[in-house]
């Protein structure tokens, strides 16, 4: 049995109005088309739904039994249609994504604020973590994408660079530090420093670049999280070695960044997605907001 929504609409219309003519007018079809839909439904259900005469149309007991079920089915179909339309137009839905702790702290708050203002009914599920955990976690979660410092090529993944940040010395806004347009790595070596641990990607990149020039980084302190480095720097324990994009000015108003040169090193902030997997309309809208907010932001 293959009952169609058009047949159910014709049936409920005739049941309510007790008239094929009025039901046809509500549906925007001809009287003969409405009558045919009722006949088809009766054949498929194997019962008579209406007793017809030249002057009236009366529901049968079978029609009385079927009416509430038909209304529920039409209501469910309408609700599904509206829900799918809302999802397609990003008026509803859910965005689940991963973000490195640095990106979540320094870059994504304005993105989240802008997205919330434009799409207030979309649920946001942001899972922040260490940058080096993004790739393995993408393999094992329902997150649609990830945002963080990822580069190179990865099997079954696409990587899009959203912005780049120069490796910088981040310190307190003192007169002498603020007066320096940049610092060399040799100058940095003369000061207390706070760097990421050796096993992190950012530290590996730094060590590789310095090694190529016969230099070596020997930090005073090593930490695993960017916010730990910034908090220690705010207490005057040393200069943090981080991309300038990872400094959230609102959270650390006393800190400033000065680019490190000789060599200059940059770190990307990237969008990571699974190959061959489409983003939901809600996720597409969020990614578009990320691109808009981060467009041209190079520090």
From TrEMBL:
- Provide the Gene Ontology terms for cellular component: cytosol
Where are the membrane-spanning stretches?
none
**Which residues does the UniProt record annotate as the domain HTH lysR-type?**
3-60
Superkingdom of the organism of origin:
Bacteria
Q: Which GO terms describe its molecular function?
A: DNA binding; DNA-binding transcription factor activity
PROSITE patterns referenced in this protein's UniProt entry, alphabetically: HTH_LYSR
Which positions carry the signal peptide feature in this UniProt record?
none
Repeat among keywords: no
- Keyword set for this entry? DNA-binding, Transcription, Transcription regulation
Q: Does the keyword Transcription apply?
A: yes
Family, per entry? Belongs to the LysR transcriptional regulatory family.
Alphabetized PANTHER family for the sequence: HTH-TYPE TRANSCRIPTIONAL REGULATOR YBHD (PTHR30419), NITROGEN ASSIMILATION TRANSCRIPTIONAL ACTIVATOR-RELATED (PTHR30419:SF8)
What does this protein do, in the record's words? NodD regulates the expression of the nodABCFE genes which encode other nodulation proteins. NodD is also a negative regulator of its own expression. Binds flavonoids as inducers.
Indicate what this protein is called per its UniProt record.
LysR family transcriptional regulator
Specify the species. Answer: Bradyrhizobium cytisi
* Lineage of source species: Bacteria, Pseudomonadati, Pseudomonadota, Alphaproteobacteria, Hyphomicrobiales
């Amino acid at each position: 049995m293959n009952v169609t929504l058009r047949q159910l609409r014709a049936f409920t219309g005739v049941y309510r109005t007790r008239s094929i003519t009025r039901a046809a007018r509500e549906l925007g079809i001809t009287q003969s088309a409405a009558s045919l839909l009722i006949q088809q439904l009766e054949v498929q259900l194997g019962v008579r739904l209406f007793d017809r005469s030249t002057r009236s149309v009366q529901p049968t007991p079978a029609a009385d039994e079927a009416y509430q079920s038909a209304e529920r089915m039409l209501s469910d179909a309408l609700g599904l249609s509206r829900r799918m339309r809302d999802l397609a137009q990003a008026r509803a839905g859910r965005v689940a994504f991963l973000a490195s702790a640095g990106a979540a702290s320094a870059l994504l708050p304005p993105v989240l604020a802008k997205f919330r203002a434009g799409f207030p009914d979309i649920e946001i599920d942001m899972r922040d973590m260490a940058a080096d955990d993004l790739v393995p976690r993408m393999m094992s979660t329902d997150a649609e994408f990830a945002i963080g410092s990822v580069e190179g090529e990865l099997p079954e993944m696409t990587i899009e660079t959203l912005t780049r940040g120069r490796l910088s010395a981040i310190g307190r806004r003192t007169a002498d530090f603020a007066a320096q347009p940049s610092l060399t790595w040799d100058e940095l070596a003369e000061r207390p420093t706070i760097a990421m641990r050796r096993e992190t990607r950012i530290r590996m990149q730094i060590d590789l670049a310095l090694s190529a020039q016969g230099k070596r980084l020997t930090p005073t302190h090593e930490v695993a999280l960017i916010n730990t480095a910034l908090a220690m720097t705010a207490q005057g324990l040393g200069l943090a070695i981080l991309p300038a994009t990872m400094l959230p000015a609102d959270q650390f108003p006393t800190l400033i960044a000065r680019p490190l040169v000789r060599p200059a090193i940059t770190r990307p902030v990237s969008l990571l997605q699974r190959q061959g997997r489409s983003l939901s309309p809600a996720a597409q809208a969020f990614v578009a907001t990320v691109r808009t907010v981060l467009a041209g932001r190079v520090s």
